Amino acid sequence: MEIAFGSASRQMLYSWASLHLHRQFFLMAPKSHRIRQLADSTMQGAVKKPRSIATESAPTSSSMKDSFSRYAEYLNQFNDKRERVVKASRDITINSKKVIFQVHRISKNNKDEVLQKAEKDLSAVKDQYIARLVNELQGADFWKLRRAYSPGVQEYVEAATLCKFCTSGTLLNLEEINSLLLPLSDPSLEPLQINILDYILGLADLTGELMRLAIGRISDGEIEYAEKICRFVREIYRELTLLAPKMDESWDMKSKMDVMLQSVMKIENACFSVHVRGSEYTSLSGMEEDTSYALLGVSEFD
């Protein structure tokens, strides 16, 4: 009896036969070959479809790029400004030192001439180099650049206060210095002024220059002038002793206070030596006025 197979039944029969033959061939294959086939089928089943990662839209990425471009441009401009400020501060330091050296050329015979030249040079420092510094800092975050310009400002304060003492015997205070710098600022903007910290640090350096000036005056026979310098430096040291613990940069000020104390002691010892040894040598030599040799401790006729 013949059995009629439909198309679906024949397809199932062919599939079963193919599976049976494949199973027979698999069992008859070597063991290594069967292991390789199992491994391949396992790896194929373990492969996963890659997942698509959601990315931000193009406008958001472009906005972030623009923001960081602005940040980079600001930092580049700020670094360029810092370099210009450092250069201006260096020029102020160099030319202020020239003013100080000019003051130390003073003697009994050329005092007015030397001080007039020093004041003229100091005015040039203000009009040329301080003005350039003010132009760079005004309208900017100048407080971020203080370490770049502070050395030059301190040196300028030192030179200005030294000239003021030599001409009038008084201290040039912070208000007077800032009033001199006021015309350099743009009237439409907030004026740029020297802060208290830089003024005090510059004033602390002044005592070292006054000590050198006093020693020079003693060697030139101006004992009273040297004693006046000694009293002035001693008063500055006493006042700064009260202010130093309250300052932010106390470590820097502490080192300056140590140097200041040494300057005071040198002036006092020099004046004391003149009074003690000067009287001895003047009585021996018969000279009553010339004590220029007394500081060295030897007679002019040795």
From TrEMBL:
<dbReference type="InterPro" id="IPR016068">
    <property type="entry name" value="Translin_N"/>
</dbReference>
<keyword id="KW-0539">Nucleus</keyword>
<dbReference type="InterPro" id="IPR002848">
    <property type="entry name" value="Translin_fam"/>
</dbReference>
<keyword id="KW-0963">Cytoplasm</keyword>
<dbReference type="Pfam" id="PF01997">
    <property type="entry name" value="Translin"/>
</dbReference>
<dbReference type="GO" id="GO:0005634">
    <property type="term" value="C:nucleus"/>
</dbReference>
<comment type="similarity">
    <text>Belongs to the translin family.</text>
</comment>
<dbReference type="GO" id="GO:0005737">
    <property type="term" value="C:cytoplasm"/>
</dbReference>
<dbReference type="InterPro" id="IPR036081">
    <property type="entry name" value="Translin_sf"/>
</dbReference>
<dbReference type="InterPro" id="IPR016069">
    <property type="entry name" value="Translin_C"/>
</dbReference>
<dbReference type="GO" id="GO:0043565">
    <property type="term" value="F:sequence-specific DNA binding"/>
</dbReference>
<protein>
    <recommendedName>
        <fullName>Translin-associated protein X</fullName>
    </recommendedName>
</protein>
